[in-house]
Amino acid sequence: MSWAAHQFEIYAVENHAPKKIAGKLSFFAIFLGDFTPDFLAKFWVYGITINGHHYGASKPDQWHRGWPGFGFSHTLFFGAIVAALIWKFSKNPAWTAGYMLGIAAHVITDINDSIGTMLVFPFLTKNWSIGTWAYAATVKGGKYFDAAAYYSSPGLLMDLFWFCVVLLSWRCLTREYWRTRIVPADPRAWAFFGRYLSEPGLVALYRATFFYGVGRMVSWTTWAHLIARPVINGVHYHGYPWDLSWGGPWWVTAVHLPAVNRWLVLPVALTLLFVTFRAVLALWDPMQRVAAERRP
Amino acid sequence: MIQVSVTPPVPAEIDQPRARPREALFYVLAFVTYVAASIWQKFLLNWVVGPLWLIAWVEIGTRIRRRRAATRAARVSAPEAV
């Protein structure tokens, strides 16, 4: 799974949207789309322990990304269904398109770990993974071990990549950008929060996901490499060992689910991303027409 | 382009570029305290607390700053009343 990458990519999706829909997508919808998969599936991945009894998935990887399991939450098909429901009940193009692109970003990013996602669910329930780093959510290790593995592996590079993408388009974090592009795309939602927050507070609300992404990246990395004292294969370490090689870290037994050939994954993922964007663009004008007819 | 106002107008003497460095300070303080606290208390590293941490720092800091600015302005305009 990816960690802070999901917090950063929502800014990239909004900022680098095709010209036709640039500045017209709801930021909250992109956020919601990107967060829904893990919101639905991740709690049970780690589970909770009460009085020494663990409540949670017995096979976290299967639950998180597999079928049977909650892996359907990490699929474009699920995203399309939810986006269709958003459209049915709101007739809001900014929310419908924003949600779909947000969840697409999440689904595609998650092909990088060793279990990947079911890209073409429900037509095929095999997972699509390029295995950039090892999926490390286990019942025994829980969130701490998962975080340590991720922030010792190419997962950290993925977070840093998206962090740099946002920094290179730093204007998307400015107040001016928020005023002129983010608010007009979704005035109702911002007006709602404007009842409770001042303008600096609203700008902070917009930047809060970025803040959280940077915060968790720094915090987990610091903990994993400066504070934790793990014992791996009987050897005591000061901090978890780094391993930025492909498929790392070496001290994690990478979990796998039944998957398609790895060489097919990237071309298919990029094609599906392209198709998703094309579909959103093709539906944009009809959605706008319907929305315009409904306006008083 | 649709012009939307999401907040009540802010008095010019309060919402001016000079206030930005102070606002930036809230961001720095929020970040430093969040990272320092969350390294030791991992329950802070979640989707609710993380974003709210920043919003709380900026919003509460802004309100305090505005209140102090308003008090100062009142003192200047009517020194005998303060």
Name a few traits of the molecule.
heterodimer; A: 296 residues; mainly alpha; two-stranded antiparallel ribbon; two-stranded antiparallel sheet; 11 helices; globular; B: mainly alpha; 2 helices; 62% helix
The average pLDDT value of chain A, as a whole number, equals: 96
Give the terminus-to-terminus CA distance of chain A: 45 Å
- What percentage of residues of chain B falls in helices of 4 or more residues? 55-70%
**Number of helical runs of chain A?**
11
Report the largest inter-chain contact.
A-B, 35 and 32 residues
Strand content of chain A: under 5%
Question: Topology as H/E string of chain A?
Answer: HHEEHHHHHHHHEEH
Mass-distribution shape of chain A: globular
Question: How large is the share of residues in beta strands of chain B?
Answer: under 5%
Shape of chain B: elongated
Which class of secondary structure composition applies to the elements of chain A? mainly alpha
Low-pLDDT sequence parts of chain B: none
**Structural class of chain B, please?**
mainly alpha
Largest sheet, strands/sense/barrel of chain B: none
Integer-rounded radius of gyration of chain A: 20 Å
Question: What is the total tally of β strands of chain B?
Answer: 0
Q: Number of helical segments of chain B?
A: 2
Question: Please, could you describe this protein's structure?
Answer:
The complex is a heterodimer of chains A (296) and B (82). In chain A, 59% of the residues lie in helices and 3% in strands. Chain A contains 11 helices and 4 strands. Chain A has helices at 5-15, 27-46, 60-65, 76-90, 93-109, 142-150, 154-168, 175-185, 187-194, 199-227, 262-294, and strands spanning 48-50, 53-55, 231-232, 235-236. Chain A has a two-stranded antiparallel sheet. Chain A has a two-stranded antiparallel ribbon with strand order 3-4. In chain A, β1 and β2 (53-55) form a beta hairpin. Chain B has a domain at 18-71. Chain B is 62% helix and 0% strand. Chain B is elongated and about 50 Å long. The model of chain B has no long low-confidence stretch (mean pLDDT 83). At the A-B interface, α8, α9 and α10 of A face α1 and α2 of B.
